[in-house]
């Protein structure tokens, strides 16, 4: 196992995040709204003691992006920082209550076709045993092993006629997970490997443009 859920792994990931040359935060373009997601790292919970990240399938009753794969997150409230928004959304969606001391770092901002500028916040959720999904927002919650996102065949890139940019896809349990979620997970993988790989130009599928 490459990433056991222990203090050594926590320190290693925090050091990788600190060493990551994150692009400077910017004010959103006029049509973009600021948002944040929680890249919450938790114990596998299956007896393997591995480190996993929490991924959700959005509830079918939501107004936007219903039934899509997503990291816990949402729009920043007025005057709210991305870190505060990620912590709040993680608690609202999954009942996991963390604080600023649990933040390991942040990844690059990602502009979405649907009008958001997303800030990914990497969190160490040592108190994740009480995960309780909010059924109004979350259809199901899944734990993705860090070892799995590092597989050589975990991601692929395809062309679409609607864009000159490559669409990134992450393979998980027989499903394709697309950007923005796939792009953010891909950058986490690159950070863990010590690489400053940019993902803002990786494309989303057309169904996620609205």
Automatic annotation (TrEMBL):
Domain Nudix hydrolase, first and last residues per copy: 32-165
One example GO MF annotation: metal ion binding
Entry-linked CDD domains: NUDIX_CoAse_Nudt7 (cd03426)
Superkingdom assignment: Bacteria
Keywords carried by this UniProt record: Hydrolase, Magnesium, Manganese, Metal-binding
Pfam families noted in UniProt: NUDIX (PF00293)
Cofactor(s) for this UniProt protein: Mn(2+); Mg(2+)
Protein family (similarity comment): Belongs to the Nudix hydrolase family.
Entries under PANTHER family matching the protein: MITOCHONDRIAL COENZYME A DIPHOSPHATASE NUDT8, NUDIX HYDROLASE
Name this polypeptide is given: NUDIX domain-containing protein
Organism for this UniProt entry: Bradyrhizobium erythrophlei
């Amino acid at each position: 196992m490459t990433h056991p859920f222990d203090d050594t792994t926590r320190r290693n990931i925090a050091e990788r995040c600190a060493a990551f040359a994150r692009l400077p935060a910017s004010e959103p373009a006029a049509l973009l709204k600021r948002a944040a997601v929680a890249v919450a790292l938790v114990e596998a919970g299956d007896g393997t003691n591995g480190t996993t990240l929490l991924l959700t399938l959005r509830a079918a009753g939501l107004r936007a992006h219903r039934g899509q794969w997503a990291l816990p997150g949402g729009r920043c409230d007025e005057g709210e920082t991305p870190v505060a928004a990620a912590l709040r959304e993680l608690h609202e969606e999954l009942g996991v209550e963390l604080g600023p001391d649990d933040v390991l770092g942040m990844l690059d901002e990602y502009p979405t076709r649907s009008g958001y500028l997303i800030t990914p916040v990497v969190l160490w959720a040592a108190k994740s045993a009480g995960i309780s999904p909010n059924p109004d927002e979350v259809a199901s919650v899944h734990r993705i092993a860090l070892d799995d996102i590092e597989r050589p065949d975990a991601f692929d890139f395809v062309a679409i006629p609607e864009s000159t940019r490559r669409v990134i896809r992450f393979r998980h349990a027989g499903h394709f997970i697309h950007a923005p979620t796939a792009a953010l997970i891909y950058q986490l993988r690159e950070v863990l490997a010590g690489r400053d790989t940019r993902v803002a130009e990786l494309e989303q599928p057309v169904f996620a443009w609205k």
